Amino acid sequence: MDIFRFHRYTGYIDRMIKGDPIKMETSAHESPQTIYVRTLGGFSITVDGKEINDNSNQSKKPWSLLEYLVVFQKKDISVNELIETIWPDDPGANPGGALKTLMFRSRKLLDPLGIPPQRLLVQQRGSYAWTQDIPTVMDIDQFESVCNQVLSSGGAVKDPDQLLAMCMKGLDLYKGDFLPKSEYESWVIPISTYYHSLYQKLVYKTIELLMEREDYGAITSVCQTAIGIEPFDEQFHYYLVYSLYKDNHISQAVDHYNHTLDLFYNEFSISPSEHFKELYKTIRNKEQGINTNLDSIQEALREEASSGAFYCEYPVFRDLYQLERRAIERTGDSIYLCLLTLCDLDGQVPKMNVLNRAMEHLNGAIRNSLRCSDVYTRYSVSQYIILLPTVTAEKGEMVLKRIIGNFHRQYNRRDLSVEHRLQPVLPWERKSEMDAAL
């Protein structure tokens, strides 16, 4: 989104009701000192322009203790609760002493803020708490307030411009997931899931409002940011492709669709939904348009110079397979379907980090071991299938063994093997009119 459009939307925020909970600036009625805490996309505490954050390489536990006390700032937290939180598995022989030492280290983190650390991390009656003497503004409270006003069915905000402005402000607040450096802490996981879910809903609401305005450039910007935070939400990818298409960035739309296809296939061994595929077909149809010039059509169909076998996506491979079946009914040629399966020594799918690299090498071995007229595709997370026309079973076996030999020369791991199978393709059987009638 261009800067002018962004400020046009967010400018409406200034006309919101007095006491707007998402306003960050210090107003006249606020305390001269206000503590601002960021937890979305990272952890930082800021007072009067002085900031501390968790970007340093210091030990994690002092930061974990500080995070916990700040997030649950509205209650006194017992020593036992802190010990169970910081050392859930093994509190050690002297957990109380360890906590006092850790509290000292957490307070040292606060020194650059210019406020006595004992005033910020308060100890009283066997418990600890974050200060209540100095106002503390947290980004998660601001973000949740925006979401509650925007997403509630009977929300008080009715003006479309104001509603969109609030959505954009909420998206700007969400810099990333809650406390990402502590994402595996048991107390962080449910909180992070909650705010992440709110963020996804807010993105959908923003896109809905922008669709009504047909502001596809803004949708593109929103989706690109959202995908950076949540790369596996198919709807974010769908709306990004759709907005690029509607904004006449056809080649970019096609490129991102193909990127999404690879992303979901490599990570989950699944392809996009039918809904997404229909959008792709629509884009392709528009991209091609009507053209009566065969020279330009051939130029558009021309393949970039490449060597080795022809790799294609599975739907294309399936169509080519059907075409070959129809052809051999007439020609009587021999054609074989080959299956290569990558596995460990127990016959199981290898671990993902090993599998991804091994499949890249197997892909290269297939491409460089076959003729340029041979076709292959990835069939599953650990398998490739190949069409070998005009070969005998013996020659097919030789080809597969050559591929496997080349693979092991490129990627020499003794804990991996490639199993192969070979089967003739049977001719397509045309149904007679009588069969069809029956």
Automatic annotation (TrEMBL):
<protein>
    <recommendedName>
        <fullName>Bacterial transcriptional activator domain-containing protein</fullName>
    </recommendedName>
</protein>
<dbReference type="InterPro" id="IPR036388">
    <property type="entry name" value="WH-like_DNA-bd_sf"/>
</dbReference>
<dbReference type="GO" id="GO:0006355">
    <property type="term" value="P:regulation of DNA-templated transcription"/>
</dbReference>
<dbReference type="GO" id="GO:0003677">
    <property type="term" value="F:DNA binding"/>
</dbReference>
<dbReference type="InterPro" id="IPR005158">
    <property type="entry name" value="BTAD"/>
</dbReference>
<dbReference type="InterPro" id="IPR016032">
    <property type="entry name" value="Sig_transdc_resp-reg_C-effctor"/>
</dbReference>
<dbReference type="Pfam" id="PF03704">
    <property type="entry name" value="BTAD"/>
</dbReference>
<dbReference type="InterPro" id="IPR011990">
    <property type="entry name" value="TPR-like_helical_dom_sf"/>
</dbReference>
<feature type="domain" description="Bacterial transcriptional activator">
    <location>
        <begin position="138"/>
        <end position="284"/>
    </location>
</feature>
<dbReference type="InterPro" id="IPR051677">
    <property type="entry name" value="AfsR-DnrI-RedD_regulator"/>
</dbReference>
